[in-house]
Design goal:
It contains 7 helices and no strands. It is mostly helical and 180 residues long.
């Protein structure tokens, strides 16, 4: 008796799985055709058990991700010890290379009898400029993030297009230059 019930249950599950696959195929087809009416969507959502509450929750989550989530992610990454330590190591290497180049040039200019201010590479304002640029960098909001924040209800396709237009292989700048 139990065996027959299990077989009947397996047949019912197979029918349900087949119906679900048909619904998925129909939904994909309708999305491709672009002729999905609200009534058809409501029916399919009901078939899948998706409610308007689910849609509202998803819309709220999308809004949060766009308006706060991306920025929070970037801030978390930028403030993480791994990132800061790696960046500090790179800065240190640049500094050390600069010191070495400066010492080498200094010895050369000294051998020529030139004073510090007479050397062609001497810049008395370099330290101030570095401090200013460092402060400005900390206050910048990347152009991509600005665009997303300006349009919090952006579609996923538009978001993907934004990402690809300023991605790693793009020549466009993500930082956008300048302060907010």
């Amino acid at each position: 008796m139990l065996e027959r019930k299990e077989q009947a249950w397996e047949r019912e599950m197979a029918v349900l799985v087949e119906e679900k696959e048909e619904l998925v195929a129909e939904l994909k087809h309708l999305k491709e055709v672009g002729s999905v009416s609200q009534e058809q969507l409501n029916t399919m959502y009901a078939d899948y058990g998706i409610t308007s509450d689910d849609n509202q929750r998803l819309a709220k989550e999308k809004h949060w991700l766009i308006t706060e989530g991306f920025g929070a992610f970037l801030t978390t990454v930028a403030q993480s010890e791994d990132f800061k330590n790696g960046l500090e190591e790179v800065y240190g290497a640049y500094r050390d290379a600069g010191y070495q180049a400066g010492l080498k040039d200094g010895y050369i200019y000294s051998a020529q009898g030139l004073g510090r201010k007479e050397t062609p590479l001497y810049d008395s304002k370099a330290k101030k400029r570095l401090s200013k640029l460092d402060k400005e960098l900390g206050n910048k909001t990347p152009v991509l993030l600005k665009k997303i924040l300006e349009h919090p209800m952006i579609s996923v396709d538009e978001l993907k297009a934004l990402f690809s237009s300023v991605g790693p292989s793009s020549s466009k700048s993500v930082s956008g230059g300048g302060s907010p």
